[in-house]
Amino acid sequence: MKKYEVVRTILGERWNTAPHYTIKTAFAPTNIALCKYWGKRDEELNLPLTSSLSISLGNKGTNTELKISGKHEDEIYFNGGLMANDSPFSQRLLEFIDLFRYEHIPRFSIHTNSNIPLAAGLASSACGFASIVLALDGLFDWQLSQDELSILARLGSGSACRSLWQGFVHWHAGIRSDGMDSHGESLRARWPELCLGLLIFSEAEKAIPSRIAMQRTITTSALYQAWPSKVSRDLAAIKQAIANRDFQLLGKSAESNAMTMHATMLSAWPPIVYAIPETLLAMQRIWELRGDGLQIYFTQDAGPNLKLLFLQRDIENVLANFPGVEIIQPFAMD
Ligand code: DP6
Q1: Ligand 1 center to residue 160 CA distance, Å?
Q2: Most confident of 99-103, 117-121, 149-153, 209-213
Q3: What is the pTM of this model?
């Protein structure tokens, strides 16, 4: 099945109708997976081989303004700067927006503003696509359900289907070939004391995009066959940890899940290593601190940066050990 067929199925009668407004803005938070999505059963629709679970980062994310323009070409601005329409960033975005309009009509002026580093393994594409879907839904007044919006966001980037909600989100892998059962679900649980820390070592664009890395891992890594059962165990443990507010279980399961994902990449050919020396030094420091009794864990995505996991009571201690860390309290907003 092709992406545009999914879009037409979801929009039904609303497909190819005129926009209702001339301008709409929408925000979506970025999300960090505690149990990772790594591997697809369908490359076209970004259907995953396994379910995953994430936490959204409150006001860290992307704001997208979609405006109908009378011009002949779309215009894309990222953080205020005009992007060339043939840049990889613009092409990926326009390809996605083209799924929702007829022969490039209408033309848009698109302003996307993000307060997280682009492509540094901080899931910037996730909140980007989720905010575009929300802005389109507003502009055309489709009034789609959260699940439908999640399915549409997935067509842009898999992890985007988890950025439609704040808090903990479970992305169900689903079994259908059209992916209508593969979308996020909010766990609704709150954990006010939970903190994340962004340890940014590099804002450089990743050397290998995650979709290429996933593909290479599945096709060449001998360790990948162990991944689905590892995910089932970690997912169950993380859900239990959230329900019981068992921080040690949450931290251990999330860190071990990330390490296992990276182990599958290390054993791919050619090998994929996202860590840089700073990443490994920080990991060693975290393990040392944990040995000294501090409850601190980490997770790592397709980039060198780490995301720390700890509780509010340890903020001072974490700041003392990692002076550059940016602390996020995902439940502080509500
Ligand atoms: C390591 O969602 O960026 O961050 O579906 O190909 O766009 P595509 O991949 P993407 O992959 C995210 C991978 C990850 C793990 C995760 O977020 O679950």
Answers
A1: 8
A2: 149-153
A3: 0.96
